Amino acid sequence: QVQLVESGGGLVQPGGSLRLSCVSTTLTAETPNIGWFRETPGKEREGVSCISSGEGMIYYADSVQGRFTISRDNAKNTVYLQMNSLKPEDTAKYFCARTDRLPCWGRPRVHEYDYWGQGTQVTVSS
User: Fold this and answer.
1) What is the DSSP string of the chain?
2) Averaged pLDDT of the chain
3) Using one digit for the tens of pLDDT, what is the confidence trace for 26-81?
4) Nearest-5° angle of CA 107, CA 52, CA 100?
5) In whole angstroms, what is the distance from residue 18 CA to residue 80 CA?
């Protein structure tokens, strides 16, 4: 059974940085797509970024482009989301998810992903 575990969330001041980690029970070069999503109360879960294996396909939502960087280390079964220049509007619970059905060819959609972690809270506040 595939399991995903996120870590790295916390409280940070505006302009600060955090690095989220997503460890998958199995994450190989053949695993197509790991995505990061975020959710705030009263809003739909939104796709932030995704990364595919092989071709190195990567996507970022406009709201995080230039500030967030996604990367993967297959040897450690881990995908990272480096978040810099954080803003209060980045405050959310962040989830990683996995799909073996589709590559990362655009903004990740909730229904495209089959396996989910429990999430990690990111709070950006002074």
Assistant:
1) ---EEEE--EEE-TT--EEEEEEESS--TT--EEEEEEE-TTS--EEEEEEESSS--EEE-TTTTTTEEEEEEGGGTEEEEEE-S--GGG-EEEEEEEESS----SS--GGG--EE---EEEEE--
2) 92
3) 766 667 799 999 999 999 999 999 998 766 789 999 999 999 999 988 888 899 99
4) 90
5) 10
Nearest 5°: phi and psi at 66?
Answer: 85, -10
The string of pLDDT tens digits covering residues 4-32 is 999 999 999 999 999 999 998 876 666 77
**Residue corresponding to tokens 């071709």:** 55
d(CA 17, CA 99): 27
**Residues whose CB falls within 8 Å of the CB of residue 115, separated by 6 or more in sequence, listed in order:** 2, 3, 4, 24, 97, 98, 99
pLDDT of residue 55: 65
Here the tokens at position 116 are 């989910």
